[in-house]
Design goal:
single chain; alpha+beta; 2 domains; four-stranded antiparallel beta sheet; 11 helices; about 65% helix; rod-shaped
Length: about 300
């Protein structure tokens, strides 16, 4: 009882409330947490969009039918109609739709300009095909269509799928590097703040240490203060990032096919953000607290070991 009166709970015997500022360190950690939240969102968004686009590309084909007009080998049917009939009879094909002249003009406009429709070019008919099984072999389909309408070209999107996969991996690697840089900067910020606190309370620390206080006791005081400030700052940074992430999710929704989120690897929560991101955001204060604790412990102990 007497000891609790002489030294109440939470007594700041080293004066760390003045040594470790409760304004600068949380603000800097909050900025790091804000950037970390954006990095995590970028990684999850890259993975989700790449998965959606790859699914669509793997299950899609583009078929070009040159000279789609009347076919002398089959009176009453054009070459385009023969190809469409074969596609629609194939059980692997779920949908086969010829592109309209307006859609063809839109495809050619980036290369031929707005006058593409008036050019005297023998344009082939283009059919957009969706497959029930993206892994279905295309050799038999190509040979069948080639026999029915010679010159028909079946183009899969495998090249684009590989490029999308490479792009997604690159974006995720960039996000991972950004998170590592943010973590390194957070360690440096806590270390500098701890060194400043040691310099501000050097005499008090040396007196307490000279009276027999263990290194672990002094390091624990600094680590506890740094842990609280880092956790508070990271929580503020994560909360500040949330409205930005929700806005970006709304802007990216049309590109991710969010109408069918059950096909995505990370199912979308009602607010439009991946559930994995909702789970990762609350971890930021815990990670920041761990960084603050470990960095302060190492910094203080290494300084105390150099005392005479």
């Amino acid at each position: 009882m007497a000891r609790s009166k002489l030294r109440p709970a939470g007594f700041d015997d080293l004066g760390l409330q003045r040594a470790l500022s409760d304004r600068l360190l949380p603000f800097l950690v909050a900025a790091m947490a804000f950037l970390a939240a954006l990095g995590l969102a970028g990684a999850f968004a890259a993975a989700g969009l790449a998965h959606h686009w790859q699914q669509g590309a793997e299950a899609a084909l583009t078929i070009q039918v040159p000279d789609p007009g009347a076919d002398s080998a089959a009176p009453g049917l054009s070459r385009l109609e023969r190809v469409l009939a074969l596609l629609r009879a194939d059980p692997v094909v779920t949908d086969a739709r010829p592109l309209t002249p307006g859609e063809l003009d839109a495809l050619l406009r980036p290369w031929l300009g707005t006058d593409a429709g008036r050019l005297a070019l023998p344009l082939p008919a283009v059919i957009a095909v969706h497959l029930a099984d993206p892994a279905a072999p295309l050799a038999s389909l190509s040979s069948t269509l080639g026999a029915a309408a010679p010159g028909t070209l079946v183009e899969s999107h495998g090249v684009w799928v590989r490029r999308l996969a490479a792009l997604a991996r690159s974006l995720q690697a960039c996000a991972a590097v950004a998170l590592l840089v943010v973590a390194a900067v957070a360690v440096a910020v806590v270390a500098v703040a701890t060194h400043a606190g040691i310099a501000a309370r050097r005499e008090a620390i040396e007196i307490v240490h000279g009276l027999g206080a263990a290194d672990g006791y002094i390091a624990a005081r600094f680590a506890g203060r740094a842990t609280r400030l880092a956790a508070i700052g990271a929580a503020a940074g994560a909360l500040a990032a949330l409205p930005v992430l929700l806005t970006l999710a709304g802007l990216a929704a049309p590109f991710g096919g969010l109408a069918a989120p059950e096909t995505e690897p990370s199912v979308l929560a009602p607010a439009g953000l991946p559930i994995l991101l909702w789970l990762a955001l609350p971890l930021l204060p815990l990670i920041a607290a761990a960084i603050g604790y470990l960095t302060a412990q190492v910094t203080v102990r290494s300084w105390l070991r150099r005392l005479p």
